[in-house]
Amino acid sequence: MSCCLEFLTTLGAIVLLYFLYECLKSPVKLLYYQWLEREKKLPPLTDKYGKWAAITGSTDGIGKAYSRELARKGFNIVLIARNEEKLRQTAKEIEQDFGVEVSTIKADFSHGAVIYDKLFQDLEKRPIRLFVNNVGIGHNPPGIIPTYDAQHLWDMIHVNIAAVTQLSRHFVNLWLRQGVTGCLVNVSSILEMQPCPYGSVYGATKAYITSFTKALQLEVESFGINIQLLSPAGVRTKINKYSSWILKGNLIVPTAEDYAKWAVNTLGKTRASTGYFWHGIQTMVLKLMPTRWRSELIIKLAKITVDDTTNINEHDIRRKYGLSQKL
Question: What confidence score (pLDDT) does residue 21 get?
Answer without folding.
Answer: 67
